[in-house]
Amino acid sequence: MGSIIEEARQSAKVNGLTKMEPLTDDEQAVRDIRKLLVDICRQNGGGHGGGAIGMAPLAVALWKKTMRYNPANANWFDRDRLVLSNGHSAILLYTMLHITGYPHMTMEELKLYANAKMPDPVTKKWKATICHGHPEIEIPGVEVTTGPLGQGIANAVGLAIASKQHAALFNKPRYEVTLSRIYCITGDGCLQEGVAQEALAIAGHLGLDNLIVCYDNNGVTCDGPLDWIVSDDTNAKLRAMGWNVIDVSNGDISIDPIVAALELAKSHKKQPTFINIKTTIGYGTSTAGTFKSHHGTYSDEDATLYADPDVVDTHTLSTRTKSYFKSAVEQGRQLEEKWNLLLSEYKKSCPQEAEALQSRLDGTLDGIEDFLLSMNIGDKGVSQATRQYNGAIFNQMMDRVPNLMAGGADLWNSNQMGDQGHRIFDRNHYNGRVIRYGIREHAMASISNGIAAYAAGVRMGALSNLQVIHVATHDSIGEGQNGPTHQPVELDSLYRAMPNLQYIRPATGEEVVGAWLLALQSRNQPTIISLARDPPTVATRGTNRECVLRGGYTILDVENPVVTLVSSGSELQFTFAAAKKLITEAGIPTRVVSMPCISVFEQQTISYQDEVLSSSPHIISVEAYVSSMWARFCTASIAMDSYGYSGSGIGNFTRFGFDSDSIFEKVQKHVKAKPTRRWQLLK
Amino acid sequence: MGSIIEEARQSAKVNGLTKMEPLTDDEQAVRDIRKLLVDICRQNGGGHGGGAIGMAPLAVALWKKTMRYNPANANWFDRDRLVLSNGHSAILLYTMLHITGYPHMTMEELKLYANAKMPDPVTKKWKATICHGHPEIEIPGVEVTTGPLGQGIANAVGLAIASKQHAALFNKPRYEVTLSRIYCITGDGCLQEGVAQEALAIAGHLGLDNLIVCYDNNGVTCDGPLDWIVSDDTNAKLRAMGWNVIDVSNGDISIDPIVAALELAKSHKKQPTFINIKTTIGYGTSTAGTFKSHHGTYSDEDATLYADPDVVDTHTLSTRTKSYFKSAVEQGRQLEEKWNLLLSEYKKSCPQEAEALQSRLDGTLDGIEDFLLSMNIGDKGVSQATRQYNGAIFNQMMDRVPNLMAGGADLWNSNQMGDQGHRIFDRNHYNGRVIRYGIREHAMASISNGIAAYAAGVRMGALSNLQVIHVATHDSIGEGQNGPTHQPVELDSLYRAMPNLQYIRPATGEEVVGAWLLALQSRNQPTIISLARDPPTVATRGTNRECVLRGGYTILDVENPVVTLVSSGSELQFTFAAAKKLITEAGIPTRVVSMPCISVFEQQTISYQDEVLSSSPHIISVEAYVSSMWARFCTASIAMDSYGYSGSGIGNFTRFGFDSDSIFEKVQKHVKAKPTRRWQLLK
């Protein structure tokens, strides 16, 4: 280990990055960036500096010599997108946004990186930082929120798919309105993650030649050398997945080979490119080449290593580097101006395409609400499974909403999504709208986020706030035949707890339409629509698409109610039937509430919530999931407390006591028992 | 497509599997198996028959010519293990267990496959099936529960790791007490999944030459041909991950090339082997070679295709096949008898090793409870983070418990697990006990299940019931620096809803010891211990390791309480301080309950639960997660309702209102407001 460090340090000295002789502009820039990174990591006793320091030449190659962007307008549409999949190196991204002149990314902001510990002692206000520990999409210049390793690669694949489709739909001879490429920086960590391997395989399969992944191959992880945990021939693996692979044997000092590799990659057709760049983590510092550099502090000696004799203060860039990057702002202005000119020519020559493009940029969903409100789906209460209704609704929407993209993980047939062969997006049809993701569910979710991020404008909020609609089928134990390994009984608890996610469990065709209304109206959040595999066997009356927009609503009301039953999804049918039986056979006045979306219900006024839920002494939820959120509203629950079973179809509901007779008996018994406990699971 | 089917049908006819001429014993067996599979899929209008029919020759090659097993004792320790990663083909496994003479797997049971729809109309009892939709570990002969695609490959890697370690520890010259190999069958679906790619990379890295993966390469998925979604050069990819690759170009008819490939694989050293076997899904049937064969019914013509003129009934095997497989029982008996003899010799020659081996077989955790109960960890209330205590406890346990295996995903240093270099399990040290999993978290979890399954005996229960202890660090928003992408606020909701999983969130060093006690005592379920990154800043008194075994307990009691505060993890310290302030400064009698494990608390007697939680009008939970389960017990919650923030260390607790002053104020205000709502989130 010692020799690696020494070699790196000597190499730094010999090769001029710490020497005092005249440096080229690029060398000076790399040196200044490294100095600034050391200063930032020292300001708060830590940060992920090692990777960032190692990647400084790559950063100069990308931001100075390769990428098209406009610092004055981070959201200029035809910019190249950069995804930092090794997101812990975020400080490199912030530093480059600062150096290239993004106005919000001031040196004061960089000083707040990993430094927003406690509120201001005087004002008592919390400091807001834009230099988050990992990149967050709401910061201009950050394309996607890359958190857990590996997902950034999938996000980048999503952006590349969106850009490819955009180019295929809108580029015309002499009017190349989409030139945007996607650059992704990854470390070894991302490449080990399954989600990345899934995404890399899809990208190769689709031949996305607008995607360039730069691998910061520093051979070191958090715990030690990479060869402790990886024996892959990474290049061979990428080639086997259909990628073009380029090696850069030394990415520590000169940016020239990196620039050349990037140029080569840009010219390569029909394959995405993987550039494998050998670097040294924490290059030149006292912990260079070792795991200690990954996340830690730098010594006083490290602080002086890259210091310029003319510059005494920390957190400063030399005048030369400042002026070297000054052109970025002007270049960016010109790029956008040129593009705007092209666009106005395009509007004249290709007015129809220009209108469609504008609709895409605006994210218009023309009249979709009226369409959904008036759609006749022939829901007669007992007829089709919610996933069948969904297929029919989806097909009509695909005809109607050109901006809708979709995809499935090898369950297109089984989910009855209809024949979409004519709409397939593949390497021969980049103008398609339906993506065959293969059996790669995790990548599907992360790629969808990338696609949604492509056309999104400025985004605000806690995390990404991207409008991705996940259609989940095989809901609960109703997925009988595949057995308990395939029957979620706990996932609703996760989804309902996830901030800013809408989890909707519609019961009928009416409510599936309502779910889509809600999902499409919610422009700044993802939605999961959870659909059942089997048709209902009992008629439910009173569900209503518009009421879904309130999260929960009464479908059966009575005077002086003793019990309110709250349910969702497939179980609503049995609940409804049980309520009627409770009224007629047991003389227990029973109301029924359909609650397809708890989080939306909780956003309603207190008086509305009370009107729906607080008029009876007993409020009992009926749902074939483990009961978690329901105790917020309910005095008892009929719920799962085990895994499911290899039954068939609707029979599992009876097996686990969700049929109307079982509900009837449990509720009757419970009411008679005059329970005193705060909440109870009814068995 | 038509031509593929026709080709397969013609090939079947030409090559003698449907012909009437004399067949070899193997051919007859393959034919009988295919006939039985068609019959089983017809009995209930469906099932996953296509893959199973295609793999019939592979099955005969494995069960007749390759694997070592004893039908009379499915748990004979030194058996070869088979993992069906494409678990939807479960009926093939059940059929082979039947044919080879596992006594429980009768023809009557096979008839219940996918046929346990509704209760018996007469007895009203539900039929129990042992032929679940996907393999389940509690059925003798099933090694692991392979559910979602890809995980079975990881389970197999875990079994291979365990077997390698076993051989390294216990095999002696002339006493090869462990010969067990791991066979895994996979389809293309598993290979697309990220978790499988993670696991394959680890297996190659570790050089597990006792692992043989057989790829049923039928080129078809649920939705259509495989080339719609996969362009990988699968063999090249596996080679790049360090695997030995063998091709079998036709696996449809003769078992000979498959047997030869398996023999080759067994002789190959220092690499795991991947056998790529070209097959035809639903071979010979009317839907052969197409996606329609994956999951569906078979026609009347299909039913006669493999029928023997002598055999009129469905669900029958020819006398010839029955007698061909009769030897399996006798062979198995001899294998186990020989092994038992070897073991008794071993006990004489290597008594110490034999004792250690026996302890391993029994799963003994010698005196670990007393050890943990008496362990001095120097917990003074304010000193170390729970993850630091955990590191110290873990190191002592590794010294003490030789049967403990462990591993980490590149956070060994960061989680302060101590220097375990001397215990590393790698290709040069198969006797090691600490696995470097790399940055492959999903595979780590699934491989751990495989390791746990290796030594487990007969297992009963709902799902796998394997004792795997997951130590999760970077708990909640206390993981400040990495920002909200790395701060779970919703995961506890998932874990707490997952049946048969223990989720423990200890607050102090005392409770970390208690968490290990609970985890080690719970022999039939997995546990997650969630640990904090930062040391407490406020002293908490009254936590107790033994009380953790009751899930929740009172740590501060008062007379005539008005408020009970319930908390866990890092927030307990602030809650405790807030309670003291509420008593002294606001005159509100306040109790404090520490609740490290909700599910265990719910298993206590009602009177104990009431004693801990029901003596005050206000019961308020304090936890920096989204509140889900708490409403079961509480009238209000101080909880997260958003994602976290890139703060630093303990500061995030203050930012989000979990410091003692904020708790004090929220509780005081709430009590004064005389709330009437059932449950409320305090802001």
Automatic annotation (TrEMBL), chains A, B:
<dbReference type="GO" id="GO:0005829">
    <property type="term" value="C:cytosol"/>
</dbReference>
<dbReference type="InterPro" id="IPR033247">
    <property type="entry name" value="Transketolase_fam"/>
</dbReference>
<feature type="domain" description="Transketolase-like pyrimidine-binding">
    <location>
        <begin position="384"/>
        <end position="538"/>
    </location>
</feature>
<comment type="similarity">
    <text>Belongs to the transketolase family.</text>
</comment>
<keyword id="KW-0479">Metal-binding</keyword>
<keyword id="KW-0786">Thiamine pyrophosphate</keyword>
<dbReference type="Pfam" id="PF22613">
    <property type="entry name" value="Transketolase_C_1"/>
</dbReference>
<dbReference type="GO" id="GO:0006098">
    <property type="term" value="P:pentose-phosphate shunt"/>
</dbReference>
<dbReference type="Pfam" id="PF00456">
    <property type="entry name" value="Transketolase_N"/>
</dbReference>
<dbReference type="InterPro" id="IPR029061">
    <property type="entry name" value="THDP-binding"/>
</dbReference>
<dbReference type="GO" id="GO:0004802">
    <property type="term" value="F:transketolase activity"/>
</dbReference>
<dbReference type="InterPro" id="IPR005475">
    <property type="entry name" value="Transketolase-like_Pyr-bd"/>
</dbReference>
<dbReference type="InterPro" id="IPR005474">
    <property type="entry name" value="Transketolase_N"/>
</dbReference>
<dbReference type="GO" id="GO:0005634">
    <property type="term" value="C:nucleus"/>
</dbReference>
<dbReference type="GO" id="GO:0046872">
    <property type="term" value="F:metal ion binding"/>
</dbReference>
<dbReference type="InterPro" id="IPR020826">
    <property type="entry name" value="Transketolase_BS"/>
</dbReference>
<dbReference type="InterPro" id="IPR009014">
    <property type="entry name" value="Transketo_C/PFOR_II"/>
</dbReference>
<keyword id="KW-0808">Transferase</keyword>
<dbReference type="InterPro" id="IPR055152">
    <property type="entry name" value="Transketolase-like_C_2"/>
</dbReference>
<protein>
    <recommendedName>
        <fullName>Transketolase-like pyrimidine-binding domain-containing protein</fullName>
    </recommendedName>
</protein>
<dbReference type="Pfam" id="PF02779">
    <property type="entry name" value="Transket_pyr"/>
</dbReference>
<keyword id="KW-0460">Magnesium</keyword>
